[in-house]
Design a protein that fits this description.
- By secondary structure, the protein is of the alpha+beta class.
- It is built from 13 helices and 20 strands.
- A hairpin with a 7-residue loop joins strand 5 and strand 6.
- The N and C termini lie far apart (58 Å).
């Protein structure tokens, strides 16, 4: 069963490689293409199956109270013992094939960085998963099982909000990006006769039909993105315990992730361009410890929270954070700097486009200057949304690129706080406030530009003094 699961994980890559090898020979017939494709795919699948079988045969693990011991490797052997004190979290993932066989993948994240900070045990029985989890629990007597912990709070994403999150996720652009990347990689391998045949078909198609087809493709992409989002995040549930959060979601692939509260470094509220007008947001967390693999799986705290309900949500799930009551706006004198940063690149691009079109005798190149209008609006929006706040033991920074972000950081989790100023900022009595936190796989920093110097110094004094 392990061989089947691993082969299914590699199947998309095999299909891509088989396609590339098959079309590398120009002028082949359709029958020859089918034969080459099938033969290449089967050879790659056979090689993978043999390697996975050997890897599974040489994989060994043993668990006992407080420890998990692992030995693996076909040619190069490696042995590792994991102590309970080094474990950051124990996560469980299951896909359709694993659930059909009563199996699961157990991920153990340990303190450290890089690949060695994570261990993935695939195709374990559910009984083995529970046994390992119990042996890696916090201190308990081996003679008596640990008592069940009571939930302090629980929150579930209802179906209405789940579909609303899918509609406003903005994932419909992902399909076009994937198509573009795949086409760019296969462009040089596609025979010329395929291009010629496609061009002949397009010449006879009316322009209106092409426009309708593009709209239908866009709607299809949007519908598929909604369905994939709903399937991915169905049954989304957060449970708060004394020392951790447990997050579970998914239908086809079920995920159960544990995040220790001592690892949580910052809370990020992201309001996307499609969600902000509706008063909706997505919550992310910055987590310290562990390696890079699977980091994205625990970075999302909640796929959809209404801004007006944010304080109530935090009060139940994460009372360590709160929405600031009176954030400080950016001074009016910093507006021109935001406009300059947004409009300067657009102006350079517009002038270059105008000159390039003029070289070809196209006289409407000046229309490229219209790009300055959305650039100016973006600069004004970035200035209007910039905020800083220092209340109690929490610092809050709000800023915008395309989306709007609100970052909440508790003082003990601040790795450093920097006040930066170039000569122009010093002349206008402005500063850039930059806050750094410890986040996997490396540190991360957030900043708000052109803050009033007095407000920046107040944040510095808050951070520097006990």
């Amino acid at each position: 069963m392990m061989m089947v699961i691993e082969a299914s994980r590699s199947a998309p890559a095999f299909i891509g490689l088989a396609f590339v090898f098959s079309i590398s020979s120009l002028g082949v017939s359709l029958a020859q293409f089918a034969v080459q494709f099938s033969a290449t795919f089967l050879v790659l699948l056979l090689i993978s199956s043999v390697f996975n079988s050997l890897s599974w045969a040489f994989f060994w693990y043993r668990h006992e109270p407080g420890y998990v011991h692992i030995r693996r490797g076909v040619v190069f052997k490696s042995e590792r013992s994991i102590k309970r004190e080094r474990v950051q979290s124990v996560n469980v993932y299951t896909n359709i094939l694993q659930r059909a066989a009563g199996l699961a993948t157990l991920q153990i994240k340990t303190a450290g960085t890089g690949e060695e900070a994570e261990v993935n045990l695939r195709a374990l029985t559910l009984e083995e998963v529970e046994a390992i989890k119990s042996h890696l629990k916090k201190d308990y007597s081996p003679d008596s099982p640990p008592e069940e912990e009571a939930e302090e709070a629980v929150h579930r994403l209802d179906n209405k909000d789940l579909w609303l999150a899918g509609i406003t996720s903005g994932r419909f652009l992902v399909l076009f990006s994937v198509i573009g990347v795949v086409f760019s990689q296969l462009f040089t391998y596609i025979p010329d006769w395929i291009y010629d045949y496609a061009l002949e078909l397009l010449i006879d198609v009316p322009l209106a039909a092409i426009a309708i087809a593009a709209i239908l493709l866009f709607l299809l992409s949007w519908a598929l993105s909604i369905i994939s989002f709903v399937v991915q995040y169905a049954r989304f549930t957060i449970r708060r315990y004394e020392d951790r959060l447990e997050i579970s979601w998914g239908i086809l692939k079920q995920n159960h992730v544990t995040v220790g509260l001592h690892r949580l470094q910052a809370l990020v509220v992201m309001e996307g361009v499609f969600r902000q007008p509706l008063g909706l947001s997505t919550l992310y967390i910055e987590v310290a410890g562990g390696g890079a693999e699977g980091q994205e799986q625990i970075s999302m705290l909640h796929p959809l929270v209404r801004i007006k309900e944010l304080q109530g949500f935090l009060g139940g799930i994460l009372p360590e954070y709160s929405v600031p009551a009176a954030p400080v706006e950016l001074p009016q004198r910093s507006l021109r700097r935001y406009l300059l940063r947004a409009m300067a690149p657009a102006a350079l691009f517009a002038v270059a486009a105008w000159a390039a079109l003029a070289e070809y005798g196209i006289g409407n190149g000046w229309l490229a200057l219209l790009l300055l209008v959305p650039a100016a609006l973006l600069g004004m929006s970035r200035h209007a949304n910039g905020r800083t706040a220092v209340e109690g033991c929490q610092m809050t920074l709000r800023f915008r690129d395309i989306n709007r972000y609100t970052v909440m950081i508790n003082k003990p989790h601040l790795q450093s706080l920097s006040l930066l100023a170039n000569p122009f900022q010093r002349y206008n009595d402005l500063r850039t406030v930059r806050a750094a936190v410890l986040s996997s796989p490396s540190g991360k920093s957030f900043q708000v530009k052109d803050v009033d110097a007095d407000e920046a110094r107040r944040a510095w004094e808050w951070y520097s003094h006990r």
